[in-house]
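Sanity check

After download, print the first record. It should look like this:
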Amino acid sequence: MKKKINKLSLVTALVLTSTLVLAACGKSPTTTPSTSPSPSTSTSAAPTNTPRTPFTFTMNMDNPNINWTSEVAQEITKRTGATIKWDIITGDFRTKMNVWLAAGDYPDVINIHDNTLESYIKAGAVLDLAPLIKQHAPNIMRAYNNDLSFLQHPDGKVYGLLQPPTKKVTQLNQSGLIAIQSAVLKEAGYPAIKTLEDVRTVVSNYIKKYPEIGGGKTIGFSNWGAANQLYNVFDPSARQYAGFAATAQYFVDDQKNVRLRFFEPGYTDIFKFFQKINTEGLFDPESLVQTQDAFSAKCAQGRVLVIFGGGNCTAALEKTMIERSYVAFDIVAPGKTKYVAKPSTNPGRGGDMWLSITKNAKDPVRIIQFYDDMFKLENQILVGWGIEGKYFKVENGKRVVTDWFMEQIKANPNNYYEILGIGYARPLSTNYATGFTLSDGDFAKFGDSESYITRNYNEVHRETLAKYNAKTFSDLLVKGTEVDYNFTPSTVKWTDDIKKFNTEAIAEWGKSLQKFILEKDATKLDGIWADLQKTLKDKGLDKQNAEVTKLYKDDLAAAKK
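Expected C-alpha cells:
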C-alpha cells in the first residue's frame, strides 16, 4: 500500500544500528518523542477544554501492564470525558488482528500495522476519517497543516491517523563512538580528545602505569562482536569515523547514486587503527567474537578503558567503581568532513502503524472529538510529560522533570511508564519520535529534554563533562554538515535477490574484517579488502548498487509529485 506521504520508502534488508528507535510503549524514554502543531501556542499546561460528556471506547494494546487508573489517565478523562478500555493482545500481534477481522470482533479503535490495515480496508472494517476530521477535528487539521494528503491512501480516503509532523527536531541524546573511562581522562589531566591517536596516547600511558585492575589485565579497547553484533559495532564505527551520514548501509554521493559503503575512501581507516593497536596489545581481539556476557564481565571489573562503536557498562560500575564511568567522544578522521542526514520532520509511525476507527464504534464522532482534544497543546504536554507541578515544572520557559518524578522512575525502573501513565503517546497518536518538539518549541517527551538526560548522569559524568565545557554527551559531538538525503529505510521494495545479496555481503565482510584486524603485516591490509571487493563483485555488487540507486531515485521523483 502506498501512502501519499512526503518521505521515501527505500529499504534496507539488513539490521541497522541506530540509536533511534520508535517505542513510546517501551521502556526507554529517550526514544519516545514527537510533535504536531497545535491550535494553541501558549506555554501553559493548563487545560482549555470545554467539558464533554463521559464515554468509554475500546482499543487494542499489546502491553499487558497498561491501565487507565494512572493519574495521567484520570486527568485525560477529566479533560475529555473519555475512558479507554484496553483489549489486550497476547501472542503474535498481526495474527490476533487477523483473527479479529475474520470474526468481525474487533475494538472500536485499533492500532494497526500498514499491511494488516490493508486487509481491514478491503473488508470494510475501518472508517474513512476524512469527513469526520474536516467536520469535527480542527486541531487534527492544524496538526497536519490543513493537508490530509499525508494520511491518504490510494483511493483518496483517510483510514487512520499517523504521528503528526513537527517543525523542529533536536536530538540531545546522541553520543560519540569512543567511550573513555573518566578515570583515564582524569589521570591524563583531561586532555583534548580530537583524534584516535589522542585516545591511544592516554590509554597507552594508563596501561603502562596500571597494567592490572582488580587483579586482572587492563584492557585498552573492547566491545562485543558475536554473531550480528560484529556488524552492528564495527560498521558504524567505520562510518562515523569516515564522516559518512547514517543512510542505512549505503553511501549516497552528490549525484544521488547509492553504493554499499564498504569500499568508499576512508571506510577502513578505523580498522587500520584497530589493526595497529592490536599489534601493540591495546586492542582486545576477543572483541571480534565475544558475547555480550563475556564483554560485560570485563567491563564490570573496571578493566576496559575504552568502548568503541557504541554502548557502555557504566551501570555495572556505579556501585563499586563509579570513577570508571564512561564519557563518549565523537571523532572524525583528520581532513574528513562529517555529514549528517537531516532528520525528517514528517515521520511515519513505528512500523507504519495507524490509529483507525472501526465500523464497530458506536459513536465515531465522539471518538474523533476525543482525539481532536488530545491534539491540543496542553494535552500533548500531559501525554508527554505528565502533570505540571508534580511530574514537571517550568523553568526559564522550558519544562524540566521534578525530583519526585525521577524518584518514581528510580523506584520503578521496569514499569514506571504504566505506573506514572506516560506510555500513552502511541495509542493516542500524539508525539513520540526522537527529538520532536511541540508548537511551543519545547520537547514533546520528557525523555529528550536536557533536564532528564542530565539527571541520569552521575556525579563523575557531570564532573568530567564540565572539564570539557559540556553538559551532555551531545555537546561533545563534532559539528556536522546536514544533508537532506531523504533516505528512509524500510523493507517494502526489496526483492529476494537483494535480500540474499545483503545477507551474503555481511557474512563475507565479517570474515574479511576479522582477518584484517588480526593481520600482523600492515602492508597486506589493502589486499585483504581488495579481495573482499572482488568477492562481492562476483556475487553481484555492481548490479545491487544499480538496483538500489534506481529505487532511491524513483522514490525521490515520487516525493516531488
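If your output differs, re-run the checksum step. Summary of this record's structure: The chain has two domains: 29-171+347-454, 178-329+460-554.
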